[in-house]
Amino acid sequence: DAKDLGGNRLAFFSPHMTEVLTERLRVEAGLRHAIEHGGLRLHYQPIMDARTGQVSSVEALVRWADPERGLVSPLQFIGIAEDTGLIVPLGEWVLNEACAQARRWLDAGWGEIPVAVNLSARQFQEPDLDRVVDRALQRTGCPSHLLQLEITESSIMEPVEQALQTMQRLTSLGVQLAIDDFGTGYSSLSQLKRFPVRKLKIDRSFVNDLGSNDRGEALVDAIVALAQKLGLRTVAEGVETEHQAQWLARLGCDELQGYLFSQPCAPQDLENWWQGRVAGSPVGITRGSAAP
Ligand code: C2E
Ligand code: MG
Ligand code: MG
Ligand code: MG
Q1: Rounded to the nearest 5°, which phi and psi values hold at 111?
Q2: Would you call 108 exposed, middle or buried from its count of C-beta atoms within 10 A (0-12, 13-18, 19+)?
Q3: Is there a smaller number of Cβ atoms within 10 Å at the N or the C end of the chain?
Q4: Which residue's CA is the nearest one to ligand 1's atom 41?
Q5: Quick one: pLDDT band at residue 278, thresholds 50, 70, 90?
């Protein structure tokens, strides 16, 4: 409380703090309303197989369709959702919607398209996460092998034994796990081999450094080598240039994701993108121009 800050109570009533708090309360109220009244959207970004050039999966990324501000980026509300606990109902909505979409693509004849869903640290710590995931799969009829869950390094840090159990309960449902933003956290490399994960997603910052400095190449090279030793697949995030894509493929990175291929977009736009490449099916797609 205020006394802990040396009794400087004024700090709590500065106009700036009031503004920040007011804004947070506004976001919280708006977000709560959006969760309950259909104000959230999922966009999907394709992830390409570096070897074949085919789409290997898509990542679901949440947006908030705010009547005044338009589509709001998750960077502007996921943190607040975590602090307020709204991440729990929000995360459940995302899981349900992503599973429902995978099922719709299956039913519409697009084939089996694995969908990756991001989990926040707070969701990962919810004791009934596996039941929430299972319920989403059952309710939507999404085959469990089509659901991938992305967990950041920081959420699996402590306590490691508990994280391990959570991951085991999830994989026993048949879903696959990936570590997101790999290289930016502090996950212990010695623990990594104990985790039942299938993929490491190499953070965008390293991909960005490729070709502009040696550090980038050394780090990507090291992560790919480590992953190969552990039998894990690697996905590079934030691939924006053909040059980066070639570099990553040469370093042995398995999958590529970024604006070079497509921005995250609404399901209908993604379907148009698929259609525009090879008539009818996302299978057999090769690299081309970015979607709108
Ligand atoms: P992330 O999981 O690492 O997702 C990748 C982010 O990089 C996405 O940002 C994507 O639009 C962006 N991106 C993809 N390709 C490129 C590229 O070539 N260049 C650049 N500059 N950026 C690229 P987005 O959609 O703004 O999401 C940001 C973060 O918000 C995500 O990072 C994830 O941590 C979080 N997030 C998004 N959706 C959800 C969700 O449903 N639940 C939770 N818990 N977190 C989410
Ligand atoms: Mg992700
Ligand atoms: Mg990421
Ligand atoms: Mg990231």
Answers
A1: 100, -170
A2: exposed
A3: N
A4: 62
A5: low
Amino acid of residue 172:
S
Q: How far is the CA of 180 from the centre of ligand 2 (A)?
A: 5
User: What residue owns the CA closest to ligand 1's atom 37?
Assistant: 61
- Is 78's C-beta closer than 6 angstroms to any atom of ligand 1? yes
Q: How many CB atoms lie within 10 A of CB 272?
A: 14
238 pocket-lining for ligand 1 (C-beta < 6 Å): yes
Q: Cα-atom radius of gyration of the chain, to the nearest Å? A: 20
pLDDT in tens, 158-204: 788 899 999 999 999 999 999 999 988 766 667 788 899 999 999 99
Q: Where are the alpha helices (DSSP H) in the chain?
A: 15-36, 78-84, 87-107, 121-125, 129-140, 160-171, 189-192, 204-209, 214-230, 242-251, 267-277
Q: Are 63 and 34 in contact (CB under 8 A)?
A: no
Strand partners, 180: 152
Token pair in block for residue 175: 């879903």
In one letter, which amino acid is 77? F
- Distance from the CA of 181 to the center of ligand 4, in angstroms? 5
| Cα–Cα distance for residue pair 64/70, rounded to 1 Å | 8
